[in-house]
Structure to design on (899 residues):
């Protein structure tokens, strides 16, 4: 399916979801980019995963970006059957307590990736069964990938 | 392709919290079979594993954070340290992502050189797997043969090419670091010719050894549905019978022009995960031969200005690394260093399946299953 | 040719005569000569593992496209000696959680029986230290004590992996003891003796002047018995493919994980001494002891033949270790109880029939 067809299928079910248009002069891949409100995410993911014409069965990666005024969680989806791709972006305007629903019940592979984001970016995944720090020690303070993170000075600083 | 993953109920693959009862065994972080500093917390009921929780982070070096403070060419050095058994493909994957954003055409010779070193790297990496997996199962000789003889030859070739044996920094944005030294291609051709015989030797020494097959066949079964749900890629996914390879599905470089097969397994047991890798070595040899036949003298680096700016925006480049789908997701704000870089590390994502994969097997199988997933902790922890 | 046995007898007789002529009583002289003999044996048993370790390193190196030890002495001959010195000088670490006495006793119990076990082995013509009438039974009985040492080592270390290794070892060694003993019974039935020396001597001779009359060449029964003996001996000595008790990749080093220095060296010594003992038993029981072949009689003395054959068997042990992966514990037990045991009983029955036929 082409990007437009995918978009048509999705907006047919979720009219409030919009594609992110490509900005002239900016680098971007050919994938379809969607902006998804956090509360719609579980429902949409279920639809994307189990709807036969879409069948986004493979969650390639989950990551997050700190845009200083907001956080963004990025999901990169691939359909192993149709070979089409999709990028979901969830904006989290609440900087104090960023929270997004988990997708581990749709793609089990999100498990550790969400834990990593929780660990390094400090975004909570609501409903994750085992949301603990994964790479850093349990008593680590702060979330290093945040832009306002102040690293502990060492003897080289 | 006509295959699909049936919409399995998510509850099948959703990991449950570990049970409380049973004996607790902490495998690692210092243990001969964890291939680095990995700890697997296992609870056993008698001989049966009731829960397994890999514990990682012992080798975390904050590569993603470091990348935000480095310029684009400097980051290639960091990528060497991720999967240190396959640094070439790491360089390549990162460069793919940056080149996508720069939209720079790569000279043909550079593409062929990249494929040659990339496939040599795959063979070298699989040699390490083969050797260490032999040790996991208790056979020492394959290790010294595959690791100490054939991989060493490949490292010699790389050393001649770029001066380094492990962290190459050879593939650069826009091409490769340098052209081949005189006679290098001939040496590669000689090596490829010999390697065909060596792979035959591995088959007689390990692959079809009855004890080895007894230890690994029908152990650690993985279905395609389970593998896709967990995001497994690479030989581990192909062993389940699922024909998925970035080189075919989302082709990059000159792979569409090469003839090669994707070896797949049938049921996804440990032996097939091993066997798929051995077959992949053969396919890599085929590809190297084809590239050596076609490669022509010419430019090996694209015309890039000395100082270039990556346009604002984002790019995702991924390729088929020896351990699976390795991707770099880069967000640029137009400054000399990336605003954010995310690494889709196949080892990291493949490793989490152990939570489900180890469950229900015997303690003696833990090492066989763990080894067959083939992880590199440098990539898991990044 | 130089037969060591008679020469040694002569030397000891001279020694005794010398002692008696200098006022020692006859009994005391006899005791003294026995003590000297025992010391020679103990020394020999202690040196053999060093030779074997060196052989293992070299054999494995050549199988693995490398050279092995090359620096200490010519071709690294003194490497094992240097390692022995190193092990003796190393600190003896006892883990905090260990049972001190058990931890201390384990290597001693494991190694002590080895020295005794070599007493009834016929190293050549007139070279049997103590020619026991029940030599075979004696060796099996005494070597079984070492299992306790391994179990103690696993138990006393206070380490889960060690304990698993120790328990596995106990299960494995006890199980494989049975087919091992059963595989030897056909030999005992055929020759009607339990003395290793008598059995080895009975195998001297030729069929049709060519084929040696060794037990391994007896049709069917000889080969089955030898194979079962060989396999279960490999298992008894904890060597790959049956090295489950010390499975490095699973149990770190199994029962000897927590041992260092001299204690570790003792376990090591016991393992290699048992490899040699098993090979020596195989030679005496199945390969005609000191009987020569191919070469005309008398070119090589019997003790050289015995050593040659023993080292050929030792080489088999090394060869297995460096080519085979490790079995899984449950498959190992299955193999013992469901395959080796029935076949050893079948072999005993077959031998019984043949003995009957021979008596007719």
């Amino acid at each position: 399916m082409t990007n437009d067809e995918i978009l048509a299928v999705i907006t047919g079910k979720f009219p409030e979801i919009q594609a992110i248009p490509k900005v002239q002069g900016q680098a971007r891949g050919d994938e379809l980019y969607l902006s998804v409100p956090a509360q719609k995410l579980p429902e949409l993911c279920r639809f994307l995963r189990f709807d036969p014409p879409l069948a986004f069965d493979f969650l390639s990666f989950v990551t997050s970006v700190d845009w200083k005024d907001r956080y963004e969680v990025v999901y990169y989806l691939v359909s192993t059957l149709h070979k089409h791709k999709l990028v979901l972006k969830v904006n989290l305007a609440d900087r104090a307590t960023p929270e997004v629903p988990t997708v581990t019940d749709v793609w089990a592979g999100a498990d550790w990736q969400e834990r990593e984001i929780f660990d390094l970016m400090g975004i909570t995944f609501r409903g994750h069964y085992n949301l603990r720090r994964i790479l850093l020690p349990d008593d680590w303070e702060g979330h290093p990938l945040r832009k306002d993170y102040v690293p502990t000075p060492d003897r080289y600083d | 392709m006509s295959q699909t993953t049936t919409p399995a109920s998510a509850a099948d693959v959703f990991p449950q919290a570990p049970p409380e009862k049973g004996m607790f065994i902490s495998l690692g972080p210092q243990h001969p079979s964890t291939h680095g500093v990995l700890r697997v917390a296992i609870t056993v009921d008698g001989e049966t594993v009731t829960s397994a929780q890999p514990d990682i982070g012992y080798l975390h070096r904050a590569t993603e954070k470091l990348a935000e403070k480095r310029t684009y060419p400097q980051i290639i050095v960091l990528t060497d340290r991720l999967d240190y058994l396959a640094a070439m493909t790491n360089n390549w994957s990162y460069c793919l992502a940056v080149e996508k954003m720069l939209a720079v055409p790569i000279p043909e010779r550079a593409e062929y050189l990249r494929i040659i070193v990339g496939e040599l790297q795959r063979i070298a990496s699989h040699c390490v797997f083969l050797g260490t997996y032999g040790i996991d199962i208790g056979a020492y000789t394959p290790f010294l043969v595959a690791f100490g003889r054939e991989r060493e030859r490949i490292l010699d070739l790389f050393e001649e090419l770029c001066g380094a044996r492990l962290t190459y920094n050879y593939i650069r944005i826009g091409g490769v670091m340098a052209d081949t030294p005189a006679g290098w291609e001939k040496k590669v051709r000689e090596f490829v010719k010999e390697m065909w015989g060596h792979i035959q030797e591995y088959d007689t020494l390990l692959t079809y050894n009855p004890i080895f097959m007894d230890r690994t066949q029908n152990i650690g079964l993985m279905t395609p549905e389970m593998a896709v749900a967990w995001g497994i890629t690479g030989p581990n996914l192909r062993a389940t019978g699922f024909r998925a390879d970035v080189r075919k599905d989302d082709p990059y470089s000159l792979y569409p022009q090469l003839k090669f097969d994707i070896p797949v397994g049938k049921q996804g047991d440990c032996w097939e995960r091993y066997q798929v890798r051995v077959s992949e070595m053969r396919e890599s040899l085929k590809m190297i031969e084809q590239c050596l036949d076609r490669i022509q003298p010419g430019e090996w680096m694209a015309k890039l200005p000395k100082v270039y700016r990556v346009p604002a925006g984002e790019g995702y480049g991924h390729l088929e690394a020896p351990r699976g789908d390795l991707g770099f997701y880069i967000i640029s704000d137009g400054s000399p260093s990336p605003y954010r870089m995310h690494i889709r590390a196949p080892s990291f994502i493949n490793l989490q399946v152990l939570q489900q994969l180890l469950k229900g097997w015997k303690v003696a199988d833990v090492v066989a299953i763990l080894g067959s997933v083939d992880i590199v902790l440098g990539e898991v922890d990044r | 040719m130089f037969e060591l046995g008679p020469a040694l007898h002569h030397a000891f007789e001279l020694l005794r005569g010398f002692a008696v002529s200098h006022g020692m009583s006859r009994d005391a002289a006899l005791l003294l000569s026995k003590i000297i003999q025992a010391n020679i044996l103990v020394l020999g048993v202690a040196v053999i593992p060093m030779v074997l370790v060196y052989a293992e390193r070299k054999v494995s190196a050549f199988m693995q496209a490398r050279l092995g030890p090359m620096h200490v002495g010519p071709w690294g001959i003194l490497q094992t000696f240097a390692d022995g010195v190193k092990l003796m000088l190393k600190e003896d670490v006892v883990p905090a959680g260990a049972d001190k006495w058990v931890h201390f006793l384990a290597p001693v119990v494991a190694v002590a029986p080895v020295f005794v076990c070599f007493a009834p082995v016929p190293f050549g013509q007139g070279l049997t230290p103590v020619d026991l009438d029940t030599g075979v039974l004696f060796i099996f009985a005494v070597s079984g004590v070492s299992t306790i040492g391994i179990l103690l080592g696993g138990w006393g270390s206070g380490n889960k992996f060690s304990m698993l290794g120790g328990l596995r070892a106990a299960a494995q060694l006890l199980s494989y003891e049975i087919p091992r003993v059963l595989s030897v019974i056909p030999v005992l039935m055929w020759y009607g003796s339990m003395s290793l020396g008598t059995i080895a001597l009975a195998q001297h001779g030729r069929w049709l002047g060519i084929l040696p009359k060794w037990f391994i060449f007896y049709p069917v029964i000889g080969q089955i018995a030898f194979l079962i003996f060989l396999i279960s001996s490999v298992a008894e000595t904890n060597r790959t493919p049956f090295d489950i008790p010390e499975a490095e990749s699973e149990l770190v080093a199994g029962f000897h994980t927590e041992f260092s220095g001299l204690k570790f060296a003792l376990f090591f010594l016991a393992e290699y001494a048992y490899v040699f003992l098993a090979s020596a038993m195989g030679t005496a029981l199945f390969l005609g002891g000191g009987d020569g072949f191919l070469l005309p009689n008398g070119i090589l003395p019997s003790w050289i033949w015995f050593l040659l054959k023993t080292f050929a068997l030792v080489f088999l042990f090394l060869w297995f270790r460096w080519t085979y992966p490790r079995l899984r514990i449950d498959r190992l037990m299955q193999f013992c109880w469901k395959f080796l045991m029935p076949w050893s009983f079948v072999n005993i029955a077959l031998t019984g029939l043949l003995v009957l036929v021979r008596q007719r």
Summary: Chain C has 13 helices and two strands. Residues 4-359 of chain C form one domain.
